[in-house]
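To assess whether the prediction recovers the assembly geometry, we first specified each molecular entity separately, as shown.
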Amino acid sequence: MRVGIWCDMRNPPRWRRPWPEVYATTLERIEEAERLGIDAVWLSEHHFFEDGYLNQPLTFAAAIAARTERMRIGTAILLAPLRPALDIAEQGALVDIVSDGRLELGLGAGYRVPEFKAFGVDMADRFPLLEDRAREVRRIWDEQAIVPPPVQARPGIWIGANGKRGARMAGRLGEGLMWLDPEMVAVYAAAHAAAGHDPATVRVSGSVNAIVSSDPERAWDLIAPHLVYQWETYARYGAEGAEQADNIVVNEASALRAEDMRSEGPEMLMPRFDVVTPDELVRRMRTWLDGLPVSDVYLWDAIAGMPGDLADEHVRLLAEEVAPRVRDLGLPT
Amino acid sequence: MIEVGIFDVGATDLPFKKTQSGIRVLDASLKEQQAASQRLQQAQVRRAVLADRLGYDYWWMGEHHFGIEGAELSTNPIQVETAIAALTNRIRLGQIANIISFWHPLRLAEQTAILDILSDGRAEVGVGRGYQAREAEVFGQVYGSTVQDQERNRSFHQEAYEILIKAWTQESFSHHGEFFTIPPSYTKWNHAQTIAYMAEEISGRDVDDVFRIGPPDAYSSGPPVQASTTTLREITVQPQPLQNPHPPVWEPLNSERTIRWAARKGVNGNFIFETDEALKPKIDTYMEEAAANDWPDYMDRGEFKPGWDAERHRGVSSGRIVHIQDPSLTHADITKHGESQMFQWDFFKPFGFAAILANPGEAPDPNLTITPELLRDKGVVLNGSKQEVLEALLGLKEHAYPDGDFITNIWFESGGLAHEAIEEQIQFFGEEILPELRRECGGSPERPVANANLVPDYQPKGDLQETAS
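The predicted structure of the complete assembly is given in tokenized form:
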């Protein structure tokens, strides 16, 4: 499998740096990551976050394409319902051309009310729309209905939706499942086979929620405020506009402490997180991912504005001391 | 438009076995049944919360008592739905049906009003006459109702319904009927504070409306409230429902007589599981009677679309028993569900429910031999793949609701099935079939988010609050 990094471009007000500097240093970090052997870079999407969470992944992907040569460039995920399929197909094709065939297109359904409102899309439709978009983009690319078409005959499309619904959808479509829950992999594979797709194309990918450090306890103390900010903004923005009634179940999350977010894994799936040594990360990943048809894993390059030197160390340790010891897992790539 | 609800009478999760005579009975002691009944209360709340999160439009529960056969364990839908109200945002909460003959109508009025308030106006209220003597005579002994004399039962139902409406809508009222005199003529209430309040203009009533003021009584003693001949003429029931003038009312429908009664009364109707072919003429009867009586309606909304009118919330609903088979479902098992249905029918058949399965032109036969194949062929049990279930429901719409909106309730639970199995079905249907139905049928009405203001702002402090401020 491939080991990648995930850049969300967060630049929180409390630790604000100039925007051009944030983008310039991230591009440098990505180039350095490629030099060190990281196999892929992944980009996600949100709109209207106060910290400038990346809102147009394919645009930034094109910039990365021009600055790199080997690593895969993927979205994890692009909010499919918010755009016409043709738009996704064309922009994706351009990234694939500038990168000479390195695009991976991860698509998701979305969950934030203000994002849907801003783009004038009915949130109630988001799962059928995700499925429609994935099917249509594949059709446009297969039939070469746009000029220029992507370089790859069949760029990877991933369905990034959790639970059985996401697994069934990915299987039905014959695309990849972007969710590393071992229980869902079986559901995905069964749906994939039931829809008559070639079993050789079964593949899963996803995020590993961990930061690597040679001194995890010191790093934890430095990272904790950034982690709390990251989680708090996810919770706050996730609930925004959702008109939550005052149900007694809603208030459970309010008393969360930073320490509560630490998890021993081994499955480092959202919302778990930890700061660990390279050895420990290797141990957890091998336990968790052994036997799964995983082609790609990716870790955040940084947590919401955390110190750059910690982020650089994390990427370096990931490339030099983790990746070589886990690449044999999953599918050959 | 389409609206989809879930119907749940609370079948047991205990296993059953077939006896030598062929009847299926619970393979459990009465003590084990108690534990099953306790599990069921929690299971029903979980299912309803799940349904709310998945976007189902309604959650309906039934009311039955003293059942030791295992088919229906749900005894108090209003109470359980009040718990559900506090845990849900959008789903409407209905009872098919509160058996009005088991209640003092004023209790029913109060408790349904409380449900309506705590759910922020999401109550739907079903009122039924009852048909099971075991429960009806036990409760009826106190209230004077019965199911063993149908005419008496209908009279009671009529009067109790009238009282329910008065209690829900009138500021201060009395009732003088065959079964109830409210308040009884001998009710002493010589309470100075009440009398003083009624004497004030702000109360909106006169003292003489509410009291028969009498002289002190030489033969009465005790507190001043009773040492008097002053009696009460009217009472006020509080609280009244949030919905104006009251929650929508539903009647379980079956015979032509009940269909026409409901249409004339302007209440909505619920058909349990008539076949596609049998349902259409029954819906036509309801519409015909409504039209012939110039569209009776407690909100005077006039004519409504045939079958169901989603905007006006008027018409009649249908029901289907569903069990989906899909490779991703761990518990789905059509054979097991079929056997489970036979267990349910061992309970329901002796009441004559098989007659409901007759298509137009067929003689209703309460002694019809029930098999899983028959139920499937009749189209009342929909078991099969996602596509088969979806098409069957669209077929129901085409047959019985061709011209208006469509409303149907899905019956997922069945005796002997594990609670996890039922939740799995509810989730699959909600994620995979409901969105497709909505796409085919022009969407569902928008459900406002309830906010009954039940939770104070105070929250224990965690790290997240520190950051947010």
